[in-house]
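Would you mind giving me a polypeptide sequence along with per-residue structure tokens?
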Amino acid sequence: MNPINATLDEGRRIRARIVPLVVACPLFLQNLDTSVMATALPSISRSLDVGILDLNLAVTAYLLSLAIFLPISGWLADRFGARRMFCVAIGMFSLGSAMCGMATSLTGLVSYRLLQGVGGAMMLPVGRLILLRSVPPSQLVNAMVWFTVPGAIGRLAGPLFGGAVVSITSWHWIFLVNIPFGLLGIAMALRFIDRDGPAAETTGFDVTGFLLLACGLTGLIGALETVGKGMFPWSANLVSAAVGAASLLAYAVYSRHRRHPLIDLSIFSFSSYKAAVVGGMPLRIAIGASPFLLPLMLQLAFGLSALQSGLLTMATAIGSLVTRTIVARAIRVVGFRSVLIWSATLTSLFYMAYGLFTAQTSHVLIFIVLLLGGLCNSLAMVSLNTLGFTQIPTQRMSHATTASSMVQQLSLCLGVVMGASLLALISAWHGEEAGRVNADSFNPAFLAIGAVTLLSVLWFRRLKPEEGDEFRQR
């Protein structure tokens, strides 16, 4: 082989690893933030003197902000350049984190989490857009594996870090730690990501589309957040849900008649994309619920400390990291369809198994089960994140990454809401006061999210056996 060509090939291989790691910095920050917060919820509850389930507002506020502002991320990347918006997004997220670290009330914390979510809304889709534009299709599977490594490290470090922080010092530091990581992410982006400018053809901002999407997501998630908690009458929840559903339906109709909609819903006509985004939604809902439920069960029901809880729940992240060594080979050998069906089925069974834990269950056994559950979960998610973009044309990639990230974050938000609502409803059924959790409520809650996960299997079975074969490295 020509030495110059060999050098170029080696350079492309190195770039195919470095760029995914750089653009995955936001995924690291988000996963670290979410997992740390879940572990620290009891400590924050005592510090702010609020009910443990009321703090779900702080978790949901961030996810809701993501869902609302995600639709504009693709337009901003095309209008001002992907690298520039990537750095701006990380900066806004870090600023929101700093303000959360100075919060002294639930109202302040929720407000700052909303600001934090504005930055988070742009980080992931713009980063994924940079990745898809930078990496050749033949290397996409391996690039997606590297892309998910920082996120797995964030989930791995989060529970342990959160447990250590609240055991040694104030919970405020779980947010302040995001600042140096954010600065490092900006520096790496400026160093390793090529400078780009606005897209050759940009369109005006679709204000009507944005308002319809924002109203729809706010109405639906708001109704789910307050149901069963006695915050508003049932009639108000129904009205909120109806307005949200009507707004989303109105956007679907509106976007069909607009030449340049904010989110082009016609991308869902691609079978692999529809399966990954819509079919994967139940799986992602369960993924959002599990990290919320696990620390609460270990600390409130089993009486473990925040540090002990963090040491156990980090097993899911370890399992996720282990997956990176086998996922590319598994896809190459049996294909996307088989990997998705079996990994989603096993993930469902492991979620149900979490509900069988008791205070007397060996911690070693809990760790092993959580590790295997994280492995199966990650195997499904890496496959989904790769398969979804195999059919999308380059010129429509910004729409695809934005819509995918929006549905992904909405699913995680629904998962948190579902987990909190299940606990509230089941505890009320057991006669507990509002805001208090019954230890027996976790078993049926995990059974429910395990059952929800099985809905994704029904979608994956509809995939063709040869789906995504052109992206399977031989």
